[in-house]
Amino acid sequence: MAFALRRARQHAGRLSLIALVVALLVAGIGGIDAVAERMLAEGASRVFTDAEPGARTIRVVADEASDAAAQDEAVRREISAAFAGERTVVSRRASADVELAAAGGSGPSLGMLDDDRVPDLATLAAGTWPRTNSEIALSVAAAERLELGVGDTVPLAGDAEGTELTLVGTWTPDDPTDPAWLGDPAVVSGESDGSIGPALVAEGALNAYADTVTVIWEIALSRVEPADIPALQSALVTLRSLPEAVDPRNEHSTGIQGDLGDTLQRLGAALATTRGLHVAPLLILALLGALVLGIVLSSQTDARGEELALLRARGASVRRLALAAAAETAICAAVGASPAVAVLAATTGVTAAMAWTAAGAIGFAALAAALFTVRHVVGVRPAAERSDAGARTLAALLLPTGIVVGIAALSAWQLFALGAVVRDDGTPEPLAAAAPALLLVAACALIPVAAGPLAAGAERLLRRTRGIAPILPLRQVARRMGGVAVAILCLALAAASVALAATAPVVAGRAEQRALTTLLGGDVRLISESAIDVSADTASSWSGVTTAAEILDTPLTVGADTGVLVAGPASAVGFGGHRKGDGGPEIDADVTRRLADRLDAEVGTAFAAQIRFVPRPVTVRIARIVDIIPGAGSGLAIATTPEELRAADVDLPANELWLRSEHPTSTAEQLRAHATQPVQILTAAQVSAVPVTSVATRVLTAGALLAALLGVIGFIAATSAMNRTRRGEERVLLALGLAPPRRRALRTGEGAGLAVYAVVAGGAVGAGIAAAVLPITLGAGA
Predict the structure, then answer these.
(1) pLDDT in tens, 525-534
(2) Residue-wise over 652-673: b if at least 16 C-beta within 10 A, else e?
(3) Which residue spans adopt a coiled-coil conformation according to this UniProt entry (predicted)?
């Protein structure tokens, strides 16, 4: 033991460096992984919470059966089977529309609601909640529309003619966007599709006034964890068979509603994207850590050359020397890993990545120390450097580089062919998601491979110049590719990581803006099932609203394909065409590149299309071919103006409203208060996955900082080790008349040249990959 301590003390600097590198690896990989997973969970929860009300639940809708209890039991049984083991909350509500009596006959319909959750979702403004069949509680907005107050009576018409209901209370919703309200605009405005309400009734009272009662079983998730998403998506697929199981003859019009599946798919795509980018810093840190440990351990073994030879001469076996080196290195690595694990365990908790990183780093260091010792003791070392050493080293580098490049090319092909990181069925594609990380490593691996030929070529061009510089440094780089390659690779990986992290936020912002333009057309988008009941002029007068545009968004059939027609002001839909004035009821329109390719058309081409609710086909002439159309995206779509449609005798009312607003949230609340038709009101919060995808940029930044530190350590260690192997050149250079300052200047220039080459090439690689790949992967941001 004392002998081992004396041996270790002689190399305390290198052993301390091993401990430091292992600590950085464990803290970096383990910490980034743990923090990223926590942020992903928080981001997924936020995305789900901010989603549009109808996109947070899935609902089973049916007409109430004569045996309501048996129907409820059957539906709940199928729901339980589909979501086995998942955290769900199933709620039942019943509703019906009844006619109110008026002086001239029947009046407006009253939307009646039987839902025991309402007292927990709303606050009484006056009165009490209904307790008997003859009592109702109206929302404040509905009571104002009917001009009723607490204590007034409401006469019914139709089958319940002569019956009067007493208004015993008025209430206001605590949160109109709560999924329990099912996005019903009447909750705020008091009216939905001509029905006034909601009017809460006592439990079981609906059957006394209505022949047909609609029952909705709402399936809400108690919480959403990233790990649960695949199982939830599978449960939704299973749930689609529920109507056939509980209502095989469709006697009760049983169906499934809700866009929870779309939300889960958006979350799954965002998580796949973020985890794919998450791989990049972890993979680079692992590679840099392995390279730095290898450099330091190799240098330490070389420094102990005489000591190992002496111990071997005194009878020490190769096995004993290897085990001693492994044990010494493992202890130092464990000393470095222990505080890192302790700090992470106290702050983020122990994770599998942390444990595997610590064990892997200790095991790798110990194994590398043993292998380097065995190679040094039993290996045959060349007496002199051969003139073709650089070429032989280059050939040896090509094989591993080719393997890495091949894997990265396959990943890139998968990403570009798919155009996303998820398949058509919504499941993640791991190989495509990992493309940025694999491409970064592959491109960085090519940088040192290219250094030798570039240095050799430059040296040939400069041979006829006078002086030994820069010919001698270039020749050294070309011939000593082993140490040079490792030094360049360390710094190139670090520079590429920094460039990727610096470029990612810019690319992510552009991708997000593109996605929001596709999905919203502005800051707030109102989508109605019929003509909008809020005009652009009215919305433009609201505080914070800068522009408002009335939009027609309707299906369009071209041949056997179904697309989308978007018509609105040219500034809103990006329309760049104009009337040619050459006669004929043609519609000038912008078309997406995908539609133009499908039609094999170009600018000026005319084609026939059928617009929904228009009795005859219309002729569309291509004014421009664009990549995306606001509100429709890059699919099969066209954009034009209402003037173009009217000129072709197409007169359809706008069914959407696109708003630019400084305060999207408050503008959405105003729209909800004015809506009297079933609508969707979308803002960036409802359609964006930024709370999840933004984790990637933060992870890349943290990884880049650690990669920069490890890269600099590795470069310095590699160049120092390379310089120690060239001490025999000192006499030769001295004989050539080069004084020590001149020799140091040559070495400094050589190192600076390598550093500049590695940083510039690595930075270009990182920025190029970010520009080429991130727009596709971050397209899942919305």
Answers:
(1) 999 988 898 8
(2) bebbbbbbbbeebeebbebbbe
(3) none
